[in-house]
């Protein structure tokens, strides 16, 4: 029997918006027949990190794919996530993530508050690790219809006045990204 393709959904969320995206992506991964592992990183605000386990190096080695999510912080990812990537030299040296599919997601308070710079810069450590990056194609109707988040670079949410609740298109686009990632992970999984 082939083992389930495990896809890590690694994120940080202080007030729940990025977590909503993480949950939608995990749902899409399940729809693809893969197994999502919702994980976070060690952080200075334990209340924000209470729900999910801290990711372990062994999980990076064993996974078949990874989604990385962060709130937009002055146009970049949360520093704790960056710090985490700086602990992954051993995995980088052994090529633990090479040729595995990856995707990114973010939440910001304002529409033009730096989502695209955050998403694109989050891809950089993943590319250094040799991952194969997936985005959201324009064949997804939600990309044209959204009046809030959802980008070709990754899933996103714009809070505006809505708080952490995702709009219909944001939810659909995040779920579809998870589905794409899960399908790629299943197809590419190395024995
Ligand atoms: C230090 C800090 C920097 C932030 N920088 C930005 C920013 O550059 N652009 C923006 O629109 N929102 C910014 N925000 C707001 C968060 O990105 C936004 O509230 C996000 O949805 C929070 O996600 P979370 O609920 O997952 O924690 C910032 C928040 C903090 C605390």
From TrEMBL:
Q: What is the lineage of its organism?
A: Bacteria, Pseudomonadati, Pseudomonadota, Gammaproteobacteria, Alteromonadales
State one molecular function term (GO): FMN binding
Q: Which UniProt keywords apply?
A: Flavoprotein, FMN
GO CC list: membrane
Keyword Mitochondrion assigned to the entry: answer is no
- Cite the PROSITE patterns for this sequence: FLAVODOXIN, FLAVODOXIN_LIKE
SUPFAM superfamilies to which the protein is assigned, alphabetical: Flavoproteins
Q: Which residue intervals define the domain Flavodoxin-like in the entry?
A: 7-182
- How is this protein named in the record? Flavodoxin-like domain-containing protein
Q: Name the needed cofactors.
A: FMN
**Residue stretches spanning the membrane:** none
């Amino acid at each position: 029997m082939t083992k389930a393709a495990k896809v890590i959904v690694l994120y940080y969320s202080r007030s729940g918006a990025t977590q909503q995206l993480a949950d939608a992506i995990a749902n899409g991964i399940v729809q693809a027949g893969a197994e999502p592992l919702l994980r976070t990183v060690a952080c200075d605000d334990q209340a924000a990190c209470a729900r999910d386990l801290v990711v372990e190096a062994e999980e990076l080695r064993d996974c078949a794919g990874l989604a990385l999510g962060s709130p937009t912080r002055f146009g970049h990812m949360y520093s704790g996530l960056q710090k985490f990537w700086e602990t992954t030299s051993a995995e980088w040296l052994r090529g633990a993530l090479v040729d595995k599919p990856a995707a990114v997601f973010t939440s910001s308070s304002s529409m033009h508050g730096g989502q695209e710079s955050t998403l694109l810069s989050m891809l950089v450590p993943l590319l250094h690790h040799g991952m194969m990056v997936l985005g959201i194609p324009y064949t997804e109707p939600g990309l044209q219809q959204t009046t809030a988040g959802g980008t070709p670079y990754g899933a996103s949410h714009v809070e505006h006045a809505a708080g952490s609740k995702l709009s219909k298109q944001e939810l659909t686009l995040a779920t579809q990204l998870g589905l794409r990632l899960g399908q790629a992970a299943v197809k590419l999984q190395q024995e």
